[in-house]
Amino acid sequence: MKLLISNDDGVFALGIRTLANTLAEAGHDITVVCPDRERSATGHGLTLHDPIRAEVVHKMFDPAVHAWSCSGTPSDCVKLALGALIDQPPDLVVSGINHGSNLGTDVLYSGTVSAAMEGAIEGIPSIAFSLASYVSQEFTVAAMFAQRLISQLEKQSLPEGMLLNVNVPPVKLSEIAGVKITRQGIRRYFDIFDQRVDPRGKTYYWLAGEVLEDVEQPEHLHLPQDVMTDVQAIRDRYITVTPLQYNLTDLAGVNCLQKLGLDWIRD
What is the mean predicted confidence (pLDDT) over 91-119? Predict the structure, then answer.
């Protein structure tokens, strides 16, 4: 398959090198276009008021991999690749392997998921991969699963407009409990803004805090309760595969608002 790979951890990240090299060794045609530096938590941001620059990357990936570093965001990277750097659309857009999980509401901020989302918007099947640890440097299990999943998608492609958000527990292969098809859970953060003063006496703030995970499964109108959330499943050492879409319309909200009979105010 012809694969376009990006990330938000940047061109020097071990996760993208492991993923790209593993898939290249499996015989896939790989093009990497990723940020030239870390661009985590940039969401689906685009660069509109500055030029976007791209440079060919040498000697960092498998010789079969065609790689570029880009000055823009993860979404910029995918847009630039599709619009200027590659001749034909890829069969699949792959993002990651991210260093750290993308669970629950993380997907709204994640550059990793946004790169995959950009592929889905363009009508290309897309997958985001994340290793659920900021400490572990072992990406091999996640890369192995990526190779297996992509080989399955060669036989049956994803529906248009869908992307898969995959999170892999940071454990040995023998300790993986299995694979779960999950739904998006809830992940909240207790935000702390650390107030500091720079050498010129001006105040600035540094966002800190810690994650608060809701492992109890909130009710879902269209799914049975036995479909686990990604937050809970990753704690149980399952690889989580969560189908996502870019259409954020709240179906229950549409029905609720229709019952209100909203109308324009007339004199």
Answer: 95
Q: Is residue 264 a part of any domain in this protein?
A: no
Does some domain include residue 200? no
Q: How many domains does the chain have?
A: 1
Q: Is residue 267 part of a domain?
A: no
CB 67 within 8 Å of CB 61: yes
The per-residue pLDDT of the chain, averaged, comes to 91
Q: In terms of Cα–Cα distance, which of 35, 24, 25, 34 is closest to 2?
A: 24
Is the peptide bond prior to 97 cis by the omega test (within 30 degrees of 0)? yes
Domain extent, residue 242, equals: 2-183+222-254
Asked, for residue 18, whether it belongs to a domain, the answer is yes
**β-strand partners of 186:** 214
The tokens describing 113, both together, are: 């998921």
Predicted TM-score (pTM) of the model is: 0.91
Collapse the DSSP code of 9 into the 3-class scheme (helix H, G, I; strand E, B; otherwise coil) and give the result: coil
| 167-181 residue pLDDT tens | 999 999 999 999 999
Model confidence over 35-90: pLDDT tens digits? 999 999 888 999 999 999 999 998 899 999 999 999 999 999 999 999 999 999 99
CATH number, residue 107 = 3.40.1210.10
Distance of alpha carbon 265 from its chain centroid, rounded?
43
Contacts of 199 (CB under 8 A, 6+ apart): none
